[in-house]
């Protein structure tokens, strides 16, 4: 007689065998399922390698500057491989703040006074442990300008500080008025067109470290402000080199792009609410001069600028403000080496508004365009926690400019480099 225990073991063994066969037949029956999976994977890999991963386009106004970038910054010639599972523009833009790590940075805060009595917050990373530049008086320094509502704690700023630390450089972050927790002392904030606060900051930093070479990097609106400053000051600028990321070159085209239904839903409304929150935080002092209740009813960035920004800075109309805020009109006057990185799929800065012709006419300016990358995205690698393509551009360019500082001082202009 066969024992019940043996019968049960045989039964469960047969059941397990049948189940495995059913799963195998159901999922990969006759190899069809496996073939579909492999075929899809191969097709996606081909599409990615042919249409997504591409070398960036480098446009430079001067042959010497072009050669300098090709020779000293290999990243401008290398294929950019966006993260294969999130290369689309909006996905890159939305995911970067969440997937990239935030390196710990211990800042030293300094509040300086502007001519109108307002205060500006600077966050210094002194890097006193620098082995390559132990003399703090001559340590290369990078001034960083965050985006529209950004501060020194944004992930993209922290990564640039980390890159600078590895190079042995010092960093100082210019926080726009009222965004980093400091009290607003006067009824004034900031905008892309007005560079008065930036001029105060640069003069202060240069007085503080007068023997150290000073470079600058601006992101999004910070890049727009920086480019506008360079265009206005021309040959008066003492910066050794500038790199600009994801700048909006024509504000009219930028706002029009962000007002398209999907982009308005994903970005415009959110950024408008962030701007309104900043205004509401300083309502006590701002409502002395402006109709804050009216400002708080704005639904888009354009409406916010019409009701607040253009009024604050004395423009006859919002169109006048947008025209003055657009760096595309000032590229021709830039007199220091400036590298600009933009992604062709950036909905914040549409590619048809890139200043290609203006760049071609200025030997001091270069424009690097990637096929993908979104707005301040540029994610790469399987799991993009660490540095991005943008970080590599920042590191290589600032290092190259710093090492070639004496040549720049001697020649004064990249057209004669």
UniProtKB/TrEMBL annotation:
It is a single-pass type II membrane protein. Its EC number is 3.1.1.32, 3.1.1.4. GO terms for biological process: medium-chain fatty acid biosynthetic process; medium-chain fatty acid catabolic process; phosphatidylcholine metabolic process. The chain crosses the membrane at residues 25-50. InterPro entries: AB_hydrolase_1, AB_hydrolase_4_CS, AB_hydrolase_4_sf, AB_hydrolase_fold, ABHD4. Residues 140-381 form the AB hydrolase-1 domain. It is found in: Membrane. One of its GO terms (cellular component) is membrane. GO terms for molecular function: acetylesterase activity; monoacylglycerol lipase activity; phospholipase A1 activity; phospholipase A2 activity. Gene3D superfamilies: alpha/beta hydrolase. It catalyses: 1-octadecanoyl-2-octanoyl-sn-glycero-3-phosphocholine + H2O = 1-octadecanoyl-sn-glycero-3-phosphocholine + octanoate + H(+); 1,2-ditetradecanoyl-sn-glycero-3-phosphocholine + H2O = 1-tetradecanoyl-sn-glycero-3-phosphocholine + tetradecanoate + H(+); 1-O-hexadecyl-2-acetyl-sn-glycero-3-phosphocholine + H2O = 1-O-hexadecyl-sn-glycero-3-phosphocholine + acetate + H(+); 1-tetradecanoyl-2-(9Z,12Z-octadecadienoyl)-sn-glycero-3-phosphocholine + H2O = 1-tetradecanoyl-sn-glycero-3-phosphocholine + (9Z,12Z)-octadecadienoate + H(+). Keywords: Hydrolase, Lipid metabolism, Membrane, Phospholipid metabolism, Serine esterase, Signal-anchor, Transmembrane, Transmembrane helix. PROSITE patterns: UPF0017 (PS01133). The active site is at residues 220, 346, 375. It comes from the Eukaryota. Belongs to the AB hydrolase superfamily. AB hydrolase 4 family. PANTHER family: ABHYDROLASE DOMAIN-CONTAINING PROTEIN, PHOSPHOLIPASE ABHD3. This is Phospholipase ABHD3. It comes from Sinocyclocheilus anshuiensis. The gene is LOC107671728.
